[in-house]
Amino acid sequence: MSAPVAIVGAGSIGVSWAIVFARAGRSVRLQDPDAARRDAVAGEVAARLDQLADAGLLAEAPGAIAGRVSVVADLAAAVDGAAHVQECAPERLDLKRELFARLDALAAPGTPLASSSSALTASAFAGDLAGRARCLVVHPANPPHLLPVVEVVPAPFTDPAVVDGVVSALEAVGQSPVVVRREVEGFVFNRLQGAVLREAYCLVRDGVASVEDVDRVVRDGLGRRWAFIGPFETADLNTRGGIAAHAERLGPAYARMGAERGQDDPWTPDLIADVTAQRRALLALEDWDERVAWRDEALIALERARRELIGREI
């Protein structure tokens, strides 16, 4: 039997992480110092598993999965013999520094110590630890049991073998890890989300659109495409000739929009060439029409699922 996974912090993210690992057959020790939080875990795990079961998304009975999750109060007991430690404490630098110092002292040598931090880097809270080479950020989308993408963010001091092992472990439990190549505040997920939110606030402030208008544009437009393709593939498929043609036609307009907000981040020829080369490695231009047809089929399937879910057209 595989060694257990220790999850430190039984809030909503911790409970969701517990489902991710338990659903994949791993035993989980979920630790929290708050008795009320510990008492709430069983009900929250059961409710989320029942929801998945009702949707036909579980390979086992909910009770069998929930049975792999044990709840403990003691941190040392949680990490004893653990193959992986996933910290889910509140986003406070002082707390994470103190907690990672304890985890480094308690966990067996070599056990990865991962933080679910949304913006704080491992360099900020683990840089002074003797075992810092096993420390990194593993930031999930919320909730991880429904959104599989996970940002794996090593510090410059993180052992590459630890990164590789964590990526393999996440893939084995059904997650979709992305290794962030350099520590930046907010990583990738929240920087993209933040860029959209900043512009959304500005559009409301400037009287261009209401809150509902902005949500409608994303919900009924951008968000539907982004449900299965990202911004680069969206641009690539929106213009015949691919992303290079898109950048040539629309790049100047996007540059003006950025300048209006005080941003000077031009799409330089070298950058466009790099992005184009990466897209063409993923999709040859001769396959462009076929991929566009696939996109349209995916949009049709999404619309069908939405209508089945809510019983009416949005």
Overview of the structural elements:
There is one protein chain. This protein has about 325 residues and is an alpha/beta fold. The chain has 13 helices and 8 strands. It has helices spanning about 10-25, 35-55, 60-65, 75-80, 95-105, 120-125, 160-170, 190-205, 210-225, 230-240, 240-260, 270-280, 290-310; strands at about 5-10, 30, 70, 85, 115, 135-140, 150-155, 175-180. It has an 8-stranded mixed sheet with strand order 3-2-1-4-5-6-7-8, sandwiched between helices. The longest helix is centred in the last third of the chain and has 23 residues, at about 290-310. It is globular and about 60 Å long. About 30% of the residues are buried. The model has no long low-confidence stretch (mean pLDDT about 95).
Output the CATH class name of the largest domain. Alpha Beta
How far do the termini sit from each other?
48 Å
Oligomer: single chain
State which percent range the strand residues make up.
5-15%
CATH superfamily of the largest domain, by name, is NAD(P)-binding Rossmann-like Domain
Which word captures the global form? globular
Helix/strand-derived category reads alpha/beta
Mean pLDDT: 95
Q: Which CATH architecture of the largest domain is right? A: 3-Layer(aba) Sandwich
The profile of the biggest β sheet is: 8 strands, mixed
Strand segment count: 8
Unreliable stretches covering 5 or more consecutive residues: none
The residue fraction in helices comes out at 40-55%
Query: Which fold name is given in CATH as the topology of the largest domain?
Result: Rossmann fold
